[in-house]
């Protein structure tokens, strides 16, 4: 088969665009890692691209970050919310998706319309805060889990995935005397591992990156999640707890590298988890997006 010049030109042009997109995606990660190992004084005076540590490479910034007790408190709180929240959210979403994907459920379409309605219209920040406060959830880690138990978009994906499972499996289970709990846990969920993995990833990443609602509902610093601690370091420029024993000039210099080291410490765990779920990711999204 003869390949035309226009097709070859298209391939070259397409490859250049993809390489540019890869560079734009990967470069920020390279920059942050290189900056975290750089010398503080050299980094402050450096301009332009950064592909390797400037000055003498060192791990002083990481030592300062790991000596900060707020980082470990943030990790503890985030891991608690991540473990409890992801498990609870996936379970609640599975229960809702199972009910809405069954045949002959009364008002199923009306319920789905109401769920979709919440994706476009909401009560607002103040009513939401007052509702959480009325339930006595403020200043507790439960405020980051219970109000967000079910995401409408994730519910729709999981419902569509459950509905794609052949109804004959459910019928045969009912003939053998199985009830809904048995059908859900013995048939539906085992056959839905890809979409469950996607839900774990969606909810897990949302919890890991979440800081806004924590800043709204939490005032006790001992309950701050990791991302709220990170926000204080990056935006509020608060590195005092990690540079208390430094000179004024050294404080300014190492503060820059501390910011990047904090980003690395808080980002690496979620990046390490993704490869284990990647094989389920595309398959799970497609199963939940296309019926049949």
UniProtKB/TrEMBL annotation:
Cross-referenced Pfam families: BPD_transp_1
Alphabetic keyword roster: Cell membrane, Membrane, Transmembrane, Transmembrane helix, Transport
GO biological process per UniProt: transmembrane transport
Transmembrane segments: 12-34, 79-98, 110-130, 258-277
Subcellular location: Cell membrane
Annotated InterPro entries: MetI-like, MetI-like_sf
Sequence ranges assigned to domain ABC transmembrane type-1 in this UniProt record: 75-273
Recorded GO CC terms: plasma membrane
Primary localisation category: membrane
Membrane topology, record value: Multi-pass membrane protein
Coiled-coil features, chain-numbered ranges: none
PANTHER family assigned: ABC TRANSPORTER PERMEASE PROTEIN MG189-RELATED-RELATED (PTHR43744), POLYGALACTURONAN_RHAMNOGALACTURONAN TRANSPORT SYSTEM PERMEASE PROTEIN YTCP (PTHR43744:SF9)
Similarity comment: family membership: Belongs to the binding-protein-dependent transport system permease family.
Protein known as: Carbohydrate ABC transporter permease
Organism (species): Vallitalea pronyensis
Source lineage: Bacteria, Bacillati, Bacillota, Clostridia, Lachnospirales
């Amino acid at each position: 088969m003869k390949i035309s010049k226009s097709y070859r030109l298209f391939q070259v042009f397409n490859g250049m665009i993809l390489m540019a997109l890869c560079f734009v995606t990967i470069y920020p990660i390279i920059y942050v890692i290189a900056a975290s190992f750089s010398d503080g004084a050299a980094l402050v005076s450096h301009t332009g691209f950064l592909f390797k540590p400037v000055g003498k490479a060192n791990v002083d910034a990481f030592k300062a970050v790991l000596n900060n007790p707020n980082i470990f408190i943030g990790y503890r709180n985030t891991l608690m919310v991540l473990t409890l929240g992801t498990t609870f959210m996936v379970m609640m979403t599975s229960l809702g998706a199972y009910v809405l994907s069954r045949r002959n459920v009364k008002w199923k379409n009306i319920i789905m319309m109401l769920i979709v309605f919440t994706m476009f219209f909401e009560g607002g920040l103040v009513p939401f805060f007052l509702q959480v406060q009325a339930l006595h959830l403020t200043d507790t880690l439960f405020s980051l889990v219970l109000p967000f138990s079910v995401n409408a978009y994730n519910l729709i994906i999981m419902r569509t995935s459950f509905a794609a499972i052949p109804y004959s499996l459910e019928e045969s289970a009912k003939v053998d005397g199985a009830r809904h709990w048995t059908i859900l846990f013995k048939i539906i969920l085992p056959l839905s591992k890809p979409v469950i993995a996607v839900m774990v990833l969606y909810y897990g990443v949302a919890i890991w990156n979440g800081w806004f609602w924590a800043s709204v509902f939490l005032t006790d610093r001992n309950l701050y999640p990791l991302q709220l601690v990170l926000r204080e370091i990056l935006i509020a420029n608060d590195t005092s707890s990690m540079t208390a024993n430094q000179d004024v000039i050294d404080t300014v210099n190492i503060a820059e590298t501390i910011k990047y080291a904090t980003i690395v410490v808080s980002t690496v765990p979620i990046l390490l988890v993704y490869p284990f779920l990647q094989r389920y990711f595309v398959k799970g999204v497609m199963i939940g997006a296309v019926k049949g």
